[in-house]
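Now for a typical sample entry:
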Amino acid sequence: MRRYLFVLGAPNDPFGVLSSIARSRMDAAVAYYRAEPGAGMPLTIVATGGHGEHFNRAPRPHRDYANDDLVRRGIPRTALVEDGFLSSNTVEDALHISEFVTRHDIPEATVLTSTFHVDRCGLIFACVMPSCRLSFHAAKDPPDLEPSVLAHERSAIAVIKNQGGVTYGAQFFPLPDEPATKIRPRRDQ
């Protein structure tokens, strides 16, 4: 049996250089890998992110730059999933992760994102509920985090709550009536 850590994508520049948000998530992923022995169960890290106007205009998918960074930091390539997960936003992340854990019959997993993003992420995952028990691990927000990022999060959370869920294309995923019992937020820094 394996444990899974899904590291959500974050911006990189047109040359593939990771932003401070992305580097903070990589810091947290490496620390998690080294500190979470998991009773002898190996950990697989799944970095997400393809291309998107707002976060990656570089030639390769963000996931590849994230995986390269993890390998430079000592994570073995054998611990990484290096295909798929070419998302361009958090809803796509949730859909890809939900499909993956269902297909592989994974009973529980952890999603790693930033502290500023964990509340919205939790709402989205509550709507697009994977079939496994899900916890969140929050990376420290970088000191250079722009106030506009926090404003965007507040606005996006308000939209989700006001419309009662999230949309993806023509699909609508409603917020659950009851609090999600399978999602355990964990804000570790």
Notes: The CA atoms of residues 26 and 69 lie 7 Å apart. Residues 180-185 have pLDDT under 50 and may be disordered. The first helix runs from residue 20 to 35. The longest strand covers residues 108-114.
